[in-house]
Structure prediction request, 440 residues.
Amino acid sequence: MPSRFQRTTKQVTLNTWDVIIIGAGAAGLMAAASASERGRRVLLLEKNKKLGVKILMSGGTRCNITHNCDVREFVTAFGRQGKFLHSALSALPPLAVISRIENQGVATKIEATGKIFPVSNKAIDVRDALVRLAMQAGATIASEQAVRKVEKTENEFVIQTDRDCFRCTSLIITTGGRSYPGCGTTGDGYDWATQFGHSIIEPVPALVPILNNCPWANELKGITIEKTIVDVWQPDQPSDPLIELSKSARRKLESRSLARREGSFLFTHWGFSGPAVLDVSREVARHANRKSLELICDFHPSLPRDQFEAMLSAKKSRDGKQIASNLLNDFFPKRLAEAMLLSANIDLQSRIAELSKPRLATIVQQVKQCRFAINGTLGFEKAEVTAGGVNLNEIESKTMQSKRTPGLFFAGEVLDLDGPIGGFNFQSAFSTGWLAGASV
Prediction:
């Protein structure tokens, strides 16, 4: 640990505590601060040498702290899970998170997307602020203390680490999920939850890049389209037609979409990434037959199909002498524009005037409903969060206490809580951690 955190230690002389928290990530640090502010004797255990490893690598090492929206919008963003967060978000709303971090000397900024980052663009500043917050409240933090066993006697919990044995009245598990296992998030908390009578919703990677089976798309690595509508769709059969559908047929098609999101789209050498793709990835990861799915992309969502086709027809009339490779240059980077035309079997050296109406319709199809076969995801190793975890029906949302075992609390990603990209998951961790600490 850095020298400025001298109170963080490997060895702890006191064996009995009011509260022990396992996992010094976003939820654990907030829980430690909250419980300590209430005068509880708090020990925060972390198996890594560094605290908050996942915080340090988040947001491309910039740390997207939270999102610039109100509590109602946060609840909506989490879909079916959102209702569970009402009490936690009331206990520590986004503005309160920002206030506490800024009071530790870390200025923040709101970007155009609504994401909130430290002005320094350094995740370590956020991590250090959270550590100071917990320590100044009175928490003791012990790193390199890997928990090996958790048991409960009649009146207390017994926690055995690879170094020491501790006892406490209240136990908070904030061990995270399985995403980025290199950070130490290897699913330990699920085993302890099961041990105390909890069921686990199957953990799957979420906010994770998607793999494809499309060589021409993989050659476009590095190209970003700022606004794309992405649908995860399972066709009735591989040859399911998408072209020339009536409005009612398109509505029926959309109702079969497993997930839909609009946002930035990034081509990579193995598949797709970017916010729109990451936000729909949990549905791919959770599907029993991932390789049967397709990604349907509208690369120009600002215009309806008929208007886009009319624009291409007007260009044909106006610029008919130009070669076909120039047809889409007004809308997309040249490499992408040409790749779309080639995938529509268009001769790039032909004249635009030679493109028939059916040919134009095929090009429109490539832009408005481009189909990619899915080959799964990059898995937990590259997932930003875990979908699934401790069943929310077994947790008291007003306190974060287990309904199965009194004195046991859960917070953060170990719960079946996962939201969209943009700071929502950190906010969930901060708020549930704070509420757990306020309830022990």
